Hints:
Structural class: mainly alpha
Radius of gyration: 22 Å
CATH topology of the largest domain: Amino acid/polyamine transporter I
Number of strands: 0
Amino acid sequence: MKEYFPAVDQYVWVLGAIAMVTLLNVLGIKLVARMNLIIIAFQFIFLATFIAMSFSAIGSDEAPSLLAPFYSESLQWPTIVGGAAILCLSFLGFDAVSTLSEETRQPKRDIPRAIMLCTVIGGTLFILASYISHLAFPDYANFGSADSAAVDVMRRVGGTLLVTFFTAAYVAGCFASAMASQASVSRILYAMGRDHVLPGWFAVISRRYGTPLGSTLIVGAISLLALAISLELAATMISFGALVAFSFVNLSVIKHYLVDEHLLQPKHLLRYGVMPSIGFLLTIWLWSSLSGNTFQVGLTWVACGFAYLLYLTRMFKYEVPDLELKEV
């Protein structure tokens, strides 16, 4: 936005976005859902336009082979794994669906379907967009910088017009992502406040709108850290937190179905034992590509959480409070 409105300071954009996202989440999940639907429709129009315009670039004599994106003689697996550890963050968000069961008519049926659809549709679109982008701009060494790679692709495919369209779609996508993230996080914090894992003011509900007012305002206030911390630090914390979550989700499946439920038939061992074990090992593989700074920040984060746990249980003199998320 700085490029299009240089006179407006970036702090104004950050504060405005946080205020708007927080207001919409206070007003209710239905309004957030309508806004997200409009934004998604806009992004689909952009994606269709990008693909259509890319055909002209791909059809030129200088275009690479259609199989070029899948193989290169200079292919280096460490580079791929390092990129995968970052790109896996693109799939963050499907898990947020599980926190919206209270606003769903048939959560036991609809929530699992929504999670799978988000993952499959999102993954398909990521692969398609990456594939088309590589064909349109095959030599990554010619990018101005890693941060402007997408803009370089848009400029080659459709010039200034497509760059402007891309910027609008990108900003809209960031806004939609912020709305969904705040909605899910505020409901988790609400449940933690309700079950006395966090102070009671996290569980304050808006009498007028029926939304978790306390936790939503707190999340909005914490979002103001965007004015102080760097994007690199934020990405580091997200990388660590995401891989921790992915690891424990796989381990939790094994414990719940094989240990607690004693489902030891061959089909259950394959579904609840082998598959999550593979997922856990793949996550460990991604762990190996994280930087030392990421581990320093992440372990500091874990230490703070453990210190709060010691305070909450009075050095484990009391049991850890149960967190009930079924009605969040």
